[in-house]
Prior knowledge:
This protein is of the alpha+beta class. Helix content is 23%, strand content 33%. About 5% of the residues have low confidence.
Amino acid sequence: MAGALITGCSKGNEAAVEARNSQTVSAETEKTSSRILEMLAVKGKVTESGAMTAPCTDNGSDGKTFRARHPWSVHQAPFVQLQASMERLRRELPKDGWEIVKDGTDSSAAKSPQLVAESAGREFAVDVRLHKASGVGNAPDLLEVTVESACYRSE
């Protein structure tokens, strides 16, 4: 996933970014990821990765602000089931207080379907992409999901 999902770390504005405990933000990001997985309601293999802390580099941040990122994917499920899960997520996110800010295709050569949404208070954003199997590198059908927190200053 290229770029940050949520803005809020513009240069000179770091003091306005909330101070938070890094471990708490990571745990909340993983909890949000779990909720997204519940909404997807797909049976497949989910990659096991935890949230990680990354610099919040929006608009030239000075390196004092961070965000939690939790990338994961669902694979070993038929493409039609992955498509249905993405449709389900499209319906369920607004019911759960999320605003869909992009619903179209990504900028890859494959023009993969992409859904980007922000939580009600803009604490989190999610980027979901549906990838069709490719003979190049034996890439499988999969849903690629990245959940990110808003920027924060570490306590």
